[in-house]
Amino acid sequence: MSDPPLVEVAVARPAPRTFTYRTPPEMVAPGETTLPPGARVEAPLGRSRVRGVVLGPGTFSGDAGALKPLLSRPEDPLPALPADLLSLGRWVAAETVCSLGLALDAMAPPAGSASARKLLCARITAEGIARLAEPDATPAAARLSGDDRRILTLLALSEGAVPLVRIRGELELPRGRSFSRLARESFLDIRRESAGLAPPPAPKQRSAPPELNREQRTAADALRAALASREFGGFLLHGVTGSGKTEVYLDAVAAALDQGRSALLLVPEIALTLEMERLVRSRFGTRVAVFHSGLTAKQRREAFWRVRKGEARVALGARSAVFAPVRQLGLVVLDEEHDAAYGQDEAPRYHARRAAWFRARAAGAVLVLGSATPSLEATRAAQTGALRRLRLTRRVGGRPLAAVELVDMRPVLRERRGPRPAVLSPLLAAGLREAIAAGRQALVLLNRRGYRARIVCLRCGEVASCERCALALSLHRRGRLAVCHGCGRGTPPPGFCPGCGGDVLRAEGVGTERLQEAVAEILPDARVERFDRDTTRAAGERARLLRAFRRGEIEVLVGTQMIAKGLDFPGVALVGVVAADAGLGFPDFRAAERTFQLLTQVAGRAGRGEVGGRSVVQTLNPEHYAVRAASDQDYAAFAQTEMELRERLGYPPFARLTFVTTTAPTPPLAEREGRELAEFLLERLAPRGVEVLGPAPAPPGPGKAIHRRQILLRAPPARQRIVRRWLHRLLGDPVLARRTAIHADP
Ligand code: ADP
Ligand code: ZN
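^ thats the input. predicted complex w/ adenosine-5'-diphosphate below
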C-alpha cells in the first residue's frame, strides 16, 4: 500500500507561507484516501507543535521522505472548515495582511481540553491589594513585573471573579502568559466559576411575531424578494431608534429558514447577544447557536459543531459569529452596523462589516446592515448604489422620539459656588428626581471610568501621568489606585507632586464612580448602580445588572457607552448625558461621528415604553455640528456635513487608511526602524498614488518592546489592493513580520 499523499497546511503562526507535510497512514480515516481540505491537524514547526488546517494536496520536488509527518489530528466528525470558510479565510488574510493560518485558526472551533461549563476565573486577595498599595520602587521581596501589576490592577478595580480569558484579552497578554505564579504568591485566587451565561431555557411555547407596521412590511418585503432571487443583495436598514428593526430582521430570518437556508445574526455586544437570543429562541426554538467570547471553550465548540452539522440554522453572536460555519447561507444581518466593536484589535484585524459583505456576496446571500445612525461607510455605499436603503422613519406604535434638551454647561461651570464644578446641572437633577418620583427609571451616561479623571498639583499645575504612556492617571475609588487607562497599570495615588514636590494635590474631573455618588446624593432612596467595564468584567455580572434593571430592582443605571447600545428598556423615562463632548477632543477623524452616534443612541434608550421620554445632554460645545444634529435627531444633516468634510480632507469613506506600526525595545531603534520602513513604503507606494505619512510616535504597546512608531498609508479605495500587496511582501520577511503590526481601517 502506498503512503497517503502529501498535504499543504496553513499553520497558526504569522508565517507568510504554507507548509507541506507527510500524512502518517494511521491518520487517514477509513474511506478516506487523504486528509480532506478543511481538516484540522497538529504539525511540527521548528521545535514546536502548532495547530494548522489542511488546504489540499501538497507538492514537493525533492525526496518526500525528507518532509516531516503531521503529529496528530483531533477527532472531528467532519473537516472543521467547509470550502466557503477556506475562501473567506483567504480573503481575511489578504484583506488584513495576516497569515492564512492565523485567519483560519480564528474560524476553527477553540482548541483545549476544558470540559466544564465553567470558566477559570481570578479574584484578587488581601495580600494582592496590599502589594499593589506599595509603591513600585520599594524593594519588596516580590517585585511585580509590569504585567503582574496590570493584572492585579484590573482585578482590584473589578467586582468579583474575572475570567482569565477576559483578563488576557483586555490586557493583550501574550498567549502563553500564566497566572500561576501570582496565585502561588497568594496575590490572587484562581478557581472555576459558573460562566453565568448559560443559555436561557428553551421556551415552552413559540411566540408569534407581531403584525408588522407599514414601513416594516415594506422593508421586510424587499428583503423577502431579494432572498427569493437567490442572488446577492445588500441593504442598509436605516431605522430610527425604537422603529422595530429587530422584527424586520426576524421576518427575513424566517424567510431564509423557509427556503431551507441559514442565517447569521450579528450584534456588537455580548449584552445584546443575550437579548437577541431570548427573542430568537422564543421565535425559532432550538435551531439557534450562540457565539461570543463570554462562553467557555466547550460551549463554543458545541455551538460550532451544531452549526457545522446543520443542526442549528441560525447563528447569533458578536463579531466572531461572522465565521460561524452555517450551511447554505441565505442571510447575514449586522445589527448596529456602525458600532466600533465590529473591528477586532488583534490579528486577524478584520472588520465584521467587510467580512460579512464578502461572505454574503460569495454565498449569493442577502446582507442587511441595520442602524439608527449608519456609519459614513454604509451611507456612502447607499449613495453609490452598492447598498439599497430601506427606511423606518417612525417609532413603533407612533411613540415619539425622546425630546433632547441641551444644557450649556459653560455658565453652570462659571457659577460654581464651591471649589468644584457641579456634576449634574439643575435641569438634569430635577429630571432625575421627577422620573424616580413617577416610578420610572433613568440612565445616566458618562464615557469615563473611575472616580476622578486626573490628579493635579495646585502649586505648579503638573498633572500626574503614566511613565510609559504619558497619559493622565485616573483616580479609582474601588481599588484606591491611580490608574493609567492606556496600559492599565495602577499605582498608589501620589502623595506629592512629581514635578515640584508640592504636597497639595487635587483630583479633578468626573468619572462614573463619582457620577454614581452624585446621583445617589440627590436620590437618597433610589437604587443607583454602575454599568461600566469595571463592574461588568466578573463572570455573570453584566447579565445580573441588566436583569435587575429590567425587573425594576435598579432605578438608575450610571455607566459608560456600554449602556447606550441597543438595549430596549421600556421603563426608562429619562436619559442623561453628563459630558457630551468627552469624545470630541480625541485626535481621531471619527470623533464627531462617534459623538453623534453615541448621543443619538443614548437618547434612543428613553421613552421606549408606553410613556414618553426625554433626554438631557450636558455639553461645553452646544454649537458643535455633531452635538446639534444629535439634539435635533437629524441624521441627514449630520451625514451631509461630515461627508463633505471627509471628502475634502481625504478621509474614509473616500480613502482607505492603513496603519503600520513598528515596535522596538528602545526609542532610537524604534526611530530608525520607523524611518527605514517609511522610506521603503514611500519608494514603492508613493509613485502609485498612495500617501505615506510618518513615522510618528505611537502609544506604547504591552510587553517589553514598547516603543512604537506609526506610519499611515492613505489610498483611494481602488488602490487599496496595491497597498495590501506590498504589505504582504513586507511581511514575507519573518523578522519584520515579528515587529510590525498592520491595521487596516474599515
Ligand atoms: P430598534 O432596534 O429599531 O431600536 P426594536 O427592534 O428594539 O427597535 O423595537 C422596539 C420595540 O417595539 C420592541 O419592544 C419590539 O418588541 C416592539 N415592536 C417592534 N415591532 C413591532 C410591531 N410591529 N408591533 C408591536 N410591537 C413591535
Ligand atoms: Zn500607561
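Residues 210-213, 216, 239, 241-247, 396, 568 surround adenosine-5'-diphosphate (ligand 1) (CB under 6 Å).
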